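Title: Comparing notes on inverse folding

I've been comparing how different people in this forum approach sequence design from structure. To keep things fair, I'm posting one structure and asking everyone to reply with a full sequence. Here's the target:
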């Protein structure tokens, strides 16, 4: 399963990068395959381990912010591994074919 999620602290002003870094740090330290871009962090693994990482990432932000917003999207596809890479490679292959 791949989960793309965004954790946003509310009530802390406009500069939220420091808070978001706390959440991303939790994901990176999890050891699960992950990727962060300007809008979301994606993490890949089994349901329980991925949801635990999301829960802990939210808790890291919640520890310092009075309110937290969570946006989550999941691709639940049993038996598929390395989806973070293979899905992008498929798109890139189609783009290269013209």
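Reply #1:
Here's my take.
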């Amino acid at each position: 399963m791949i989960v793309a999620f965004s954790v946003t602290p509310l009530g802390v002003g406009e500069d939220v990068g420091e808070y978001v870094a706390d959440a991303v740090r939790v994901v990176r330290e999890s050891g699960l395959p992950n990727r962060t871009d300007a809008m979301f962090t994606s993490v890949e693994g089994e349901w329980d381990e991925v949801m635990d990482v999301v829960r802990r990432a939210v808790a890291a932000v919640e520890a310092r912010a009075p309110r937290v917003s969570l946006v989550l999207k999941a691709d639940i596809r049993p038996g598929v591994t390395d989806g973070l890479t293979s899905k992008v490679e498929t798109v890139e292959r189609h783009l290269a074919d013209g």
